[in-house]
Amino acid sequence: MVATLCAATSFHAFAACRDTLAPAELSGKGELCIFGFCFYDAQLWSAKIPAGYDAAFALEVTYRRPVTRTRLIKTAIDEIRRIQVPPPSDATLARWQEAMMPAFVDVKPGDTLCGVYLPDRGARFYANGQLTTEVDDPAFARAFFDIWLAPGTRAPALRHHLLGESQ
């Protein structure tokens, strides 16, 4: 029953993201687990495996644990600062943090957040299938999705799974 509910929620959330990706296929999926605690399941959807951010794709994350919007944004900013070389300026990070405020909500187990990468344009965000915001900033979009897709990600196994690569 729980698996069916999560699958239905996941399909509904992705269906809302699909408008910019037709036709899209599952590129890969995985989970983020640290020391046996699983935080979320992630799926990457695209018409083709995103190489070099040259095509639109959607990253869908279904949470297994509750997380506040504040924590989601702080973690994203910390990871962007860590991964980007050179790191963005404090002013840029503050602007990006502000841009993420409407994108995210407090999540509980079973909730899904979805980000759609739009090449040369920015990103569109959904919470449980509802559009929350669009950020028209290509540098932000690239830095945001690098959290999962850059070689320097904290979750290299998840990255490989999302990109459909064998380890």
TrEMBL record:
InterPro entries: Chalcone_isomerase
Keyword terms of this UniProt record: Signal
One of the Pfam families matching this protein, by short name: Chalcone_3
Domain of life assignment: Bacteria
Residue ranges of every copy of the Chalcone isomerase domain listed in the record: 54-164
Signal peptide: 1-15
Name this protein carries in UniProt: Chalcone isomerase domain-containing protein
Top-level taxonomy: Bacteria, Pseudomonadati, Pseudomonadota, Betaproteobacteria, Burkholderiales
